[in-house]
From TrEMBL:
It holds the Pfam family Peptidase_M18. NCBIfam families: PRK02813.1 (NF002759). Keywords: Aminopeptidase, Hydrolase, Metal-binding, Metalloprotease, Protease, Zinc. The keyword Metal-binding applies. This is M18 family aminopeptidase. Its EC number is 3.4.11.-. The keyword Ribosomal protein does not apply. Its cofactor is Zn(2+). Belongs to the peptidase M18 family. One of its GO terms (cellular component) is cytoplasm. GO terms for molecular function: aminopeptidase activity; metallopeptidase activity; zinc ion binding. It comes from Halotalea alkalilenta. InterPro entries: Peptidase_M18, Peptidase_M18_dom2. One of its GO terms (biological process) is proteolysis.
Amino acid sequence: MAESRVIDRLFDFLKTSPTPWHAVACMAERLEANGFQRLRETSSWSILAGGKYYVTRSDGALIAFRLPQGKLESLRMMGAHTDSPQLRLKPRPLVRSRDWLQLGVEVYGGALLNPWFDRDLGIAGRVQLRRAGRIEPLLVDTRRAVAVIPSLAIHMDREANQGRSVNAQTQMAAVLASLESCVDQTVETLIARLIEEQYGESDAEVLDFELGLYDRQAPAQIGLEGELFASARLDNLLSCFCALEALLDADGSQGALLVANDHEEVGSSSASGAHGTFLADVLARLNESVGEGGEQGRVRLIQRSRMISCDNAHGLHPNFADKHDAGHGPKLNGGPVIKVNANQRYATSSATAALFRDICQSVEVPVQTFVTRADMGCGSTIGPITASELGIATLDVGIAQWAMHSIRETAGSADPAYLIRALTAFCERSELD
């Protein structure tokens, strides 16, 4: 697997996935191109041993799995999330201020706000339409920069570099157009224009929408020797990509499953989040179709399985090395990072960490460990949620990155291939104890 080819595919995925809904659509397209059959939650499932299938929920979450020949006894599960911190448009977003039409926004997740200023911003998301008496979702994307959040000049705020805070309500409305050119613009006419520009459809009846701003700057490999790459939404589309690559690369000898939940950045409490029933529902149906069947069979399936939760880790920052524990500063291009927290903010145990270390050693992948400083708070992932909801032994790993939750994040160019190799070996592992 050539590192450059992996980066090229990753960049294609990042460019076409400005929202969770776009990410799921891209993953579904890739799965179908590789022989996976789509299932629908509202239909009966006819699942065969040796088959490859996927299912989505609420357009923003996806589960894909490939089954071994014979009875399903265990699964190698990989988890990630499709959402990233973002500025979402309010339901009535249009704001008229002086000579300009602006977009009122709501902060989704724990975003770093300052990097959003002075960026070329597009609009993307999903719209609910009525067509022929039916309500249907439609993905929209301006595919060009249409808005900007301009900074205030240093001459008018001499304290701007002295720890200035940002007020999301009063200081982050994005400039969309001049009032002179859009005097009668409404949110309905704006969305209709977006649909017409993208699809050539001029008579769509818009019922509702979920739209947000995103950075139009393309992913790029950087560094004198291309050691790094930068993009929006690396947290956590990078993990979605690596897990999907591993599922596709695996030889199919073992049962393997990828779950990509939505809403991790806001607590995972939704039907398509890790606190929801999506994964449990799919596992129950798998057990009835190709497993032992019954409640005891479902429990045995889960207890024989393992989960690797993939979410990026904080790489050692050369300008802020004191923010890391001295013995646990993961390096970019240093391989996957095992994430540990004594208070179970990560789900890693010595048993699951040992399994992953053994897998990495078997395929010559370097591995690192991260634990946060004892005097700092620790974030979390879908790992502890999935472990507690299902009762499955779980490990938290990730690729080291800088600037987590910024509009543009940075990671090491060698690390995606490392993680894919390790996850592929996990999907092919015959023994999970």
